[in-house]
Each structure stands twice: as C-alpha cells, then as structure tokens.
Amino acid sequence: MINIKAYLLNPNAIIFLGVIISAIGIFWKAKRSKTLILIGALIIAIGAFWSEGKARKLEIELKERNEEFEKTNDYITGGDGFCHLSLVSINSRNNTASLVAIPMGEYPLYDVSFKIFDVDEFEKITQEQPAKVSINIDIGNIAPGITQRVGSINLGYENEKRYNVFIFARNGFCTQWIRLKRIGGEWVMATKVTRGETKLYEKIDDRFPQDRYGNIDWD
C-alpha cells in the first residue's frame, strides 16, 4: 500500500507533480494555461530546492559519521601521534642520564618500543673488539600527556655522543636523532623525530653548535 504522506514529502515526487502541471498547461489551450505553466514551474523549483537541501543535509550527516569513525579509529591505533625519548638529569661528572619517554598527540599510543643505536660505538667495532651498539626498550602502552622514565644511559667520557633511535608503535614507525656535545663541561643536546620524510619534532639546545645558517650536523 502506498504511503501518500511519505510520497508527497518526497522532493522527486514534487518535481514530477510540477512537470505534470506544466505539461497540462502547455497542451491545454485555455486562457489559464500560462498560469498552470507558471504554477508547475514554481512547484518544480520548490522540489529542486528541497531536494538540494536534503542532499546537503545527508552530506553533512555522512561527514559527521565519517569524523566519528576516524576519531574512534584514532583511539584504537594512536592516530597521528608519536613518542620520543628525552635525556634528562644528565650528570656531567659520571656522564649518565635518565631516559624519559614523552608521548606527543591527543590519543593513547600502543605497543611502543625503542631501539637505541649507538652510532659512535658502531664505528669502533672490529672483529677483535666487538661492542654492544644497541639497547632495546619496550614500554607497551602510554597515555597522552604522561611521561614515563624508561631507564638510564651512560654517555661515556668522549666530548660528543650520537644516537639513532628507532621507534615502533601500532600506528607506525618513526626515527629519532639524538646528538650530544660537551660544552664547557656540560652536555648539550639536539634532537629531531621524523616519520618518513616528514619532520614531526625538533628541539635544539641554544648552546649546541650550529653553522652560520642555523643548521645542525645530524650525521
């Protein structure tokens, strides 16, 4: 059984009604035919305007649902957030520092782990003098805005130190460069984080050496 109310509320039905009335006006050779044509045209215009309004409303509803889905997915995966390491409480006498994991972004991060690669020790490796060149740290999940101490590291007694950190998480892979130099008996640091070719984060101590263009030697 046809639902008359639902049919009349359909903008396509209104447009069709306007077409019928206009057609009658065209073929009806009477004084009022022009009036019928005008009425039909107005009804068609109303139906078209109504149809456009409903399409726009549907488009907005679909966009809102898509945004809700993306937000839910971001909570599950971590979104575009990332985590990086910071060296704090650096002791210039025994050259040790605490390692702190710092999450960036508004969503929790999952299955986070770090592989800290000691570039300087790697370059010293020979068959006669093997060395431990990497440290693995698994921290699991970390909430946004909550820093977490994950260990400590010995910088050695040289005047500079280079670490490359490979960061793994459910939402992807990042690389961090950590460069340290001893200036005036104190350690200063420069670090940056990238995802592919995109730089996500950079922090450089004011005293860290830079060239005349303000660039850091990350090699």
Explain this structure.
- By secondary structure, the chain is an alpha+beta fold.
- It folds into 2 domains: 74 residues; 123 residues, Immunoglobulin-like (Sandwich), CATH 2.60.40.
- 33% of the residues lie in helices and 38% in strands.
- The chain is built from 4 helices and 9 strands, in the order αααβββαββββββ.
- The strands form 2 sheets. A 6-stranded antiparallel beta sheet has the order 4-3-6-7-8-9.
- A hairpin with a 2-residue loop joins β8 and β9.
- The longest helix is centred in the first third of the chain and has 45 residues.
- The N terminus is likely disordered.
Element string (H = helix, E = strand):
HHHEEEHEEEEEE
> Within the CATH hierarchy, at the fold level, what is the topology of the largest domain?
Immunoglobulin-like
| Anisotropy-based shape | elongated
Low-confidence parts lasting 5 or more residues at pLDDT below 50?
1-9
State the name of the first-level CATH class of the largest domain: Mainly Beta
Structural class determined from secondary elements: alpha+beta
- Summarize the main sheet: 6 strands, antiparallel
Read across the widest sheet, the strand sequence of neighbours is 4-3-6-7-8-9
Global mean pLDDT: 80
What's the count of strands?
9
Number of helices: 4
Euclidean distance between termini CA atoms: 77 Å
Q: Which band does the percent of strand residues land in?
A: 35-45%
Helix content: 25-40%
CATH architecture grouping of the largest domain: Sandwich
Rg computed from alpha carbons, rounded to a whole number of angstroms: 33 Å
- Tally of individual domains: 2
